[in-house]
Amino acid sequence: MASTFHIPMSKTVLALFLLIMTSVAAVVAWSFNSGLTWTAICLIAVAGPLSLFYWYMLYITPKRASITVADEGILLAAPPFASAVIPWASVERVFPVDLKNDEAFKVGKTRKYMTFGGYKSGVVEVKDGKEAVIVSNRNDVLCIKTAERFYLLGPSDLSGFTEAVEKAAP
Fold it and tell me: Which secondary structure element, helix H or strand E, spans residue 11, and what is its range?
């Protein structure tokens, strides 16, 4: 039986983003009422597309991120930054890691990587030069070590994820 775990962006980050967008909308309305029409038009021209872009990056992208634990292995889907299929036969070791304090897993070079408000997703190099795929919204993650790379996975329900991995892994 497959279990799916999600990795959403922090609700605080989303609330702050909406608060900022509400403030920009209030300034636009004030500009139109005060006779500063071109200021309002410029705010709309700049803030409109930027807000759509940030809404996509802060809400839509993390909302699509998921980790599915099945009898065959783990399916990681965090487009556009990280996607992987990890068969149980390729797993060498599973252990907990603290990304904030564990020196061996400090992020070095990054490729296809996004981090914002505690959410991390992408492909990085860790301290020893080995490749790691990170998808997490927390600092304590479960590390799945394969011969090719590390997978540092931290869904919202880390204890449930750990339990599902222990139950499904051979």
Answer: helix 11-33
